[in-house]
Amino acid sequence: MNNSVTNTARLLGAGLRALLVLTVVTGVIYPLAVTGVAQSLFPGKANGSEITANGKVVGSSLIGQAYNLPLKKGQETPEPDLKWFQGRPQNGLGTNSVNTRYKLILSGATNRSGDNADLIKWVKDAKAAVVKDNSTADYKVRPSDVPAEAVTSSGSGLDPDISPDYADLQVHRVAEKNGLPVAQVEKLVGEHTDGRTLGFVGEPRVNVLELNIALKNLMAKS
């Protein structure tokens, strides 16, 4: 009997010591080590890939934002503010009012098949809007000019990037709305176009938030 109690006590003691050691190692030492390495080698990514403007954090390079006008009385969907470059549609986020600014409460795709009537209507309406919004007196957008990402939301609904083609399509409208030369805005897009990762992974892309910050700085100088 005494041996049984002694063995049980010894086993409990060993278990508690193992629990304490593993708690310290995996719950304190390992997280601190990983955090230290990340902060030392990749501080930007470790802190959420923050983007700053005028000394303030205005977003993340990994999360898209909407550039809309304030809602008018009776409106359910805000209109895009056409003086800014626009990102991808946000249909995947649903209609919950808390998500009008790409907040992280919801994220997801439309989950609709290619022959879904709602999705087809969204794409057609989005294409018509892109053609109308980006056509100016001296530049006309054709439906065939509209790239796919201009009329479809991403899998997460939070894609921060657009293709150079979609950015170029918006140049004339942005230039006209802000009273800037087209060539100046085209140059801005070129300066903020990133190539394929490692030269072969993915596609060339333009981060919309970074481009709009540069546009705001350009307007301040004009």
Explain this structure to me?
- This protein is mainly α.
- Helices cover 45% and strands 7% of the residues.
- The strands form 2 sheets. A 3-stranded antiparallel sheet has the order 3-5-4. It has a two-stranded antiparallel ribbon with strand order 1-2.
- Helix 4 (164-178) runs antiparallel to helix 5.
- The model has no long low-confidence stretch (mean pLDDT 86).
Compact summary:
The chain is mainly alpha-helical. It has helices at residues 2-41, 43-46, 117-134, 164-178, 182-191, 208-221; strands spanning 50-53, 56-60, 161-162, 193-194, 205-207. α4 runs antiparallel to α5 (182-191).
Major sheet size, sense and barrel closure: 3 strands, antiparallel
Shape: elongated
Mean pLDDT: 86
Beta fraction of the residues?
Answer: 5-15%
In whole angstroms, the N-to-C terminal distance is 91 Å
Low-confidence stretches: none
In terms of structural class, how would the helical and strand content be classed? mainly alpha
Q: Fraction of residues in helices?
A: 40-55%
Roughly how many Å is the radius of gyration? Answer: 25 Å
Secondary structure: elements and pairs:
Blueprint: H1 2-41, H2 43-46, E1 50-53, E2 56-60, H3 117-134, E3 161-162, H4 164-178, H5 182-191, E4 193-194, E5 205-207, H6 208-221
Antiparallel strand pairs: 1-2, 3-5, 4-5
